[in-house]
Amino acid sequence: MESTFILRKDQLDNKFLEGIKNIYKDSKLIQIIVRESEDFDLFQSETNLEYLARLENAVEGLSKGEKIELTEEQFETLAADLLK
Residue 3 domain-assigned? Predict the structure, then answer.
């Protein structure tokens, strides 16, 4: 299983890590790769409660197996379309 999370560095907290642990609870080993990302409107105004609700919703969806699988090319096309 593979997951991609795009977030601001100030959003990396214990709750986020616990969410990852929950998603991969049956895995003995996981790999985390960190790289700089483009701005996907992550600097828009958002309260802590709105952010936590959005993050919890995403983690819950992944825990239920709700995901969208895209090739890198499909993702790049989708991202470019959404950023227009």
Answer: no
